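Troubleshooting log. The previous run stalled partway through. Resubmitting the same two chains, unchanged.
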Amino acid sequence: MDSAEARRRFAAARVARLATADADGHPHLVPVVFAVDGDRVWTAVDDVKPKATMRLQRLRNIAANPAVALLADHYEDDDWTALWWARADGTARLLDPADPAAQPARDLLAERYAPYRDAPPPGVVVAIDVVRWSGWAAAD
Amino acid sequence: MDSAEARRRFAAARVARLATADADGHPHLVPVVFAVDGDRVWTAVDDVKPKATMRLQRLRNIAANPAVALLADHYEDDDWTALWWARADGTARLLDPADPAAQPARDLLAERYAPYRDAPPPGVVVAIDVVRWSGWAAAD
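Second attempt completed without errors. Output:
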């Protein structure tokens, strides 16, 4: 799968998994909702409390080590020829919710996810600059 | 969610995502099919060619850094109260396909996945000893 197709499939997915690693290289994994804008992936933290937020392992990991990976995939038990995945490898940075640069992320997320329309995620925004889109499809 | 419930939900899932990290702490992410036996998670490589296999990033990462994380999750666009995830953090090791200790893994995988019944995965087996089961459910 070429990088344009990997990006297209990733951007159309509704959920992805975010892998970070701490300074000692221990990986950490959580599911995230997200929005893609060009070669940037946005995700955000629902929790508004700054102290609780910064205890989140994913955020502590990014602060210590900005290298991250995101994965979207499709699985069908009955048909392994339908399997595919798309991955974004990149560099993450954290934006304070009050930073004006965080607003476009909330707008894109609210556009994409109905529950965010009434209540955009109030917490820290994570911006991931993707350096590599890759993927695989069983049917290729 | 307590660790017993996280383990139960993880073990019942059909697909998980495996996060590894290289020696420099760059995370890597692929979807995997798997089987749980107690506090061990088994997964295996489909490719039989030893040289191609050892070029796989996940295996090179595990050889350099055995800390891994696996995630199973449930997403529903229409109902965010139904969301949950379950994670296994642990230590991975690689078993040569010819190692007799790899056979129980192939048996469990073949029992669990129809496509493996006729053709069990012939490649390297990954054994993950889970040190922590954790999870979250929106409904809790």
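Takeaways: Chain A touches chain B at residues 14-15, 17, 19-31, 65, 67-71, 73, 75, 77, 80, 83, 85, 87, 89, 113-115 (CB under 8 Å). Chain A has a mean pLDDT of 94.
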